[in-house]
Amino acid sequence: MAAPVLPPHAQPNSSKAQAWGWAEAFVISQTALPAILYFPGTQSIRPLARIGAFAISLLILLVVIVRRNLLPRQLSPAFGPLKICLAFLTLMIFHPDTVSLTVGVAAVGFFVAILAPLIWVPALVHSVSQLRRLLWILLICNGVNSLVGILQAENPARWMPAEFSRLVAGSNYGLDIATYKGANDQTMIRPPGLFDTPGAVAGPGLLAGFLGLALSIGSKSQVSKLMAAALGFCGITVIYLTLVRSSLLVLTVMLGTYILLRRFVGSNQRTPHLILLTVGVFAAGFQLASQYGGETIHDRFSTIVEEKPTEFYYRSRGIEVEYGFKELLPKYPLGAGLGRWGMVSHYVGAQTVEGAMGADTQFPAWIIDGGAVLLFGYCLAIWKAWSWLLQRAKNTSDEQLRALAVLVLAVMAGMFIHCFSFPVFSTQIGLQFWFLIGASYGAIIHSIPQEPSDARARKQVPRIGRRF
After folding, report:
1. CA 421, CA 250: separation in Å to the nearest integer?
2. What are the pLDDT digits (tens) for 259-309?
3. What percent of the chain has pLDDT over 70?
4. What is the pLDDT of residue 170?
5. Inter-residue contact 36 to 45 (CB < 8 Å)
6. How far apart are CA 363 and CA 329, in angstroms?
7. By C-alpha distance, which of 185, 187, 184, 183 is closest to 174?
8. 20 strand-pairing partners
9. Which of 98, 182, 342, 467 could form a disulfide with 104 if both were Cys (CB 3.0 to 4.6 A apart)?
10. What share of the chain is helix, strand, coil (3-state, %, to 5)?
11. Residues 53, 428: contact at Cβ < 8 Å?
């Protein structure tokens, strides 16, 4: 049965769309909290700053659950598989190879913090205009982060953070692993942006690059068009400067998906403009980055087209994904225990325990934590969220909602592809992934006129808080 045609977003919610609240504060916090480490003397509070970006998600979830009247009428279809994953990970606390009870509880809490926006964001996003505002805030935050990264390449003495992460500075190689030879044989540090780890701004550059191009095409105001395009230019340029090829490839996937989906839902009138803008910004960004990074920039990114795509990927990350499916999954079909890799492993101290493991891509990470249950359950949740939003984008009569839904769908597709090169759902990128899904879901369900309260009561739909 085809999904019903959704009406334009309801006008009664327009007042809610004008008010800034927890959703907007959360987006800003994802840049502001890690940016604390940009300032001198903050390395001693690094764990608090890093954990804080995730802890705020749990805090908002707690507030929304306590105030049940804030909860939406129903949850995203993605929550069903994720609930099973959460239940299984809770059992994994008692796995014999889980490092300790404390570490196991911390790992489950970290998992909940990342997916929590799927639950609480729909309670705080009430209109399409608010969804658009959140996307703009996300663009501005990541665009400013990218701009700082460019300034660090132009004048490192002034713009580089006073202290780099002790994870880098205290390693056997120091900053040597984070540098390359730039123009005029000067030593270039891969820009960290508003973070303290060299190259870390590649993630914000990815989002800024895509959102800048997409929102520029979708904006009516010339000022908004130019601002979005400029921030997108900053994002793409800083990706070149960090030498992170995977971010550039994922950005290409996002843009390709965006163009195809616009055509699929019948909203492709400005596609030629988007293609021309993309080619121009990519070329201009490469030119500016080459002025600072010299031949290294050209040599690094030319390998993408000079090598066969399959060989290029297998040599860089594919071998680890293959190892995950061929070695780890048969050996640990139900997981290898919690706290044996990643952020929880580092901050709770599990890296000193014999048997600690590593995962540089998402699929081995899922297998280590929860085996086949977490691997396939998480992928199913992503698919359910993506297919639900695609159906709504295709059937809505609200042109603005359709355009924003397609934009979010393209981000989702790119982030999932990023799982083949990076442990996305164990970082802030995963947190932002579920935030965007929750925000889109909230905008859509609040666009549908609510039934009278007595009619809803007769249906006896169970409260969402009990389901959780």
Report:
1. 9
2. 999 988 877 677 888 999 999 999 999 999 999 999 999 999 988 878 787
3. 85
4. 54
5. yes
6. 10
7. 187
8. none
9. 98
10. 75, 0, 25
11. yes
